Amino acid sequence: MLKSPRILSGLAAxxxxxxxSAANAANLGFLNDTPATWMKQADYNSLARAVRDSVANKxxxxxxxxxxxxxxNPVKMNATITPSKMQKDGDKTCRDSEVVVTAKGQSMTLRPxxxxxxxxxxxxxxxx
Length: 128
Prior knowledge:
Number of helices: 4
Protein name: Outer membrane surface antigen
Radius of gyration: 15 Å
Keywords: Signal
Number of domains: 1
């Protein structure tokens, strides 16, 4: 299982950057209408669980669907989660994934990578 604080830290960064006036002050106003703008903490937590489950349990190319139905956010959101390119190197297994989040007619695509040592937890890999 993946640890929630580490999953989708790229998404968390986007969420922080897209927060209202901070985005405008940093000349990041283009983020104002992305799905990240409309995400609530419950949405983020639920999506993180869905990504964690997909990475841990789905085959390469097998798409999972996520919605924020029942989470209390009046903005309806959905996402597709598709793990891919599982690669093994000794005891280490890595896989890419694609997460496409849609809200209010706008989509954003995230491509997080996760690695696992042996049978340990899948860990989000930060890009440098």
